[in-house]
Amino acid sequence: MADRDKWISAGAVVKPHGIRGEVIVDVTRDLADMIASGMVVRLTGRKGCETRPSVEGVRFHAGRLIIKFRDVESRSEAESLRSQELWLTREQIGPLPQGRYYVQDIVGLTVYSEPGELLGRVTDVLFMPANDVYVVSGEGEEILLPVIDDVIRDVDLAGGRIVVHLMKGLRREDR
User: Fold this and answer.
1) Among 13, 45, 46, 92, whose Cα sits 20 to 30 Å from the Cα of 78?
2) CATH fold of the domain at 103-174
3) CA 68, CA 64: separation in Å to the nearest integer?
């Protein structure tokens, strides 16, 4: 498995918290509870900078995750982590429930309607309160597909495709 496929984006460091080297991290929905003391994570920043620090402590405060990394002892050291992306391995996360997928596995898949019309490729996933939304870009058109059973009919990761039911109103010409 390629290194890119091993690591899953789990969030990003927002800013330092306090004076003892802690940082506030915005974590991807469903992954906050997976981060634990002793775990080695991956942090990536601008210009290809990468570190693999060990988590020394984790706690929640005001709806956000606060992480203390081993060997980050001051506010200025924590400041150097600002805006870095936090990654977990697939093994740390464990298997996903049926019908759930990693974003990086979905982005790039080719999307077809049930009758077989090529709609485009998934270019992004939006995390909305009610459900996620796949952004599909095709021939001069962008379609926003709610990730619900009535729309997403089949996801074939091995085949690199998604089959969808286009409900009325999802395409511009239907509006």
Assistant:
1) 92
2) SH3 type barrels. (2.30.30)
3) 13
